[in-house]
Amino acid sequence: MAKEKSVISESLKSPRGMHDILPSDHEYHTYIKKVIRHRARQAGFRRISTPILEYTDVFKRSLGENSDLFTNQVYSFDDKKGRSLSLKPDGTPGVVRAYIQHNMDERPQPVLLYYFEPHFRYENPQKGRYRQFWQFGFEIIGESDPALDAQCIQIANKINEDLGVNGLYTLQLNTIGTSESREKYSQVLEDYYVGKERSLCENCKKLLEENPLRMLDCNEEDCKILAELAPSMHDYIDKESLEYHEELMEYLDEIGIKYENNQKLVRCLDYYTKTVFEFWDEKDGSSNATGGGGRYDSLINTMGGKSIPAVGYAGGVERIIANMKKEKIVVPSKDELHVFVAQLGREAKRKCLGLIEDMRESGIKSMGALGKGSINIQLELADKFKVPYAVLIGITEVRENTAIIRDMKKGVQETVKMEKVVDRLVDFIGEKNLDKYSPGELLYS
To answer: How far apart are CA 335 and CA 355, in angstroms?
Structure first.
């Protein structure tokens, strides 16, 4: 008889564009998080977590009230007291708000922070784009120096190498100058596009009025052709920004990081100044960029703080996982069980509970003492969990204070005194494979 499947209504499924992270994908999340933590610690970064919700003004100020991201993609609602709150669509504004609120400018500068958190944007779900997505990011706040920009790019590049996906991307690099030079170039672009509106996509027609720079990274064919023929951004950028960019390239050359100078790269967020960079897919380009960042020297002042320079990077976790799977990269897992404990009868189950605890305290990952099925049924369950060893305790074993240890792969077994079971299993499994630690060791893991 076929097993009946559960049927769930659409209103009880996960919302469109949001997805469950099942155990198999959590293995990737855990691995990526460990790589990021390792690289962050090496470079002196400290972890920060900001609320998923911020007052809407945080994003209105940082992203720009008229930006496409703020007007069309931010999830906002009023709370019970009528205050407007928003789910964070980007990590940097919350970190900057925390920097200002907690007077981090009084600490030794620069302040180095990193995060690994979910974010939310109301956009059309498609490959690599979700309405709830995970990002990790690095922020270096308090100094302006091309060497810091280079180090930020270096960390991002190193993480891609660690995860085995670095060969899939090209580093795109540009400078967009100061806010003043950017405004001058925006006016030049407006003048250039006058009379060409009929060739623009609907989104670019809107951007022409709101943010002409964003038109340069449109992927529509006609818009791309017009962008290629547009006046060069670098002809309108201030001398200081160009010299800053030259110095940054010298540092990247010195540390052996390859890059492509891309004068059409502007990034989708309005708070950037000078350096901008993205890691583009070798085949799909910007449409499948895995992450990017840049310098945002005026953002803290815009948010109500002092004029404090900063640079940062954010990477998309889901896109990285998709590329790791494409490259058939298998991440190490510590979730596999070592032992399944099968028992028969209430007395045997009582014995099992204490034995299972002793196993776990010794670093043996174990489960068992489940239900009232026969030993054979429980062994079938052990097979499904793919454990290398099973411990069997029945009426005879309870009476004789013993247990049977079965090698599930070889099909051989031996009877062992109850007090020797854990030691014998440790011999079989091997000390190096145990998941053993003390609370004190957690401080250094």
So the answer is: 20
343 and 414 in a single domain? The answer is yes
CA 323, CA 315: separation in Å to the nearest integer? 13
- Indicate if 251 and 344 belong to the same structural domain: no
Per-residue DSSP letters for 377-412?
Answer: HHHHHHHHTT-SEEEEE-HHHHHHTEEEEEETTT--
Cβ neighbours of residue 322 under 8 Å, at least 6 residues apart?
127, 128
Count the Cβ atoms, other than its own, within 10 Å of residue 361. 10
3-state secondary structure of 439: helix
Which residues 6+ apart lie within 8 Å of 415 measured at CB? 397, 402, 403, 404, 405
For residue 415, name the pLDDT band (cuts at 50, 70, 90): very high
* Orientation of helix 91-101 relative to helix 56-63, angle to 10°: 110
If asked whether residues 42 and 119 sit together in one domain, one would say yes
Q: Could you say which DSSP state residue 8 is in?
A: -
Residue ending a domain, choose from 326, 359, 379:
326
Per-residue DSSP letter, 304: T
User: Locate tokens 């540092």: which residue?
Assistant: 251
* Domain, as residue range, for 360: 339-442
Exposure string for 404-435, b = 16+ CB within 10 A, e = fewer? bbbebeeeeeeebebeebbebbbeebeeebbe
User: pTM for the complete prediction?
Assistant: 0.86
- Sequence-distant (≥ 6) Cβ neighbours of residue 260 within 8 angstroms: 170, 171, 172, 173
d(CA 206, CA 217): 14
221: in domain: no
Give the count of domains, the chain. Answer: 2
For residue 361, how far is the Cα from the chain centroid?
Answer: 32
pLDDT, tens digit (0-9, with 9 covering 90-100), for 66-110: 777 888 899 999 999 999 999 999 999 999 999 999 999 999 999
Residues 287 and 166 grouped into a single domain: yes
> Would 30 be classed as within a structural domain?
yes
Q: With beta carbons less than 8 A apart as the criterion, state whether 380 and 444 touch.
A: no
* DSSP3 helix / strand / coil % (the chain, rounded to 5): 45, 20, 35
Domain match, 110 and 247 both = yes
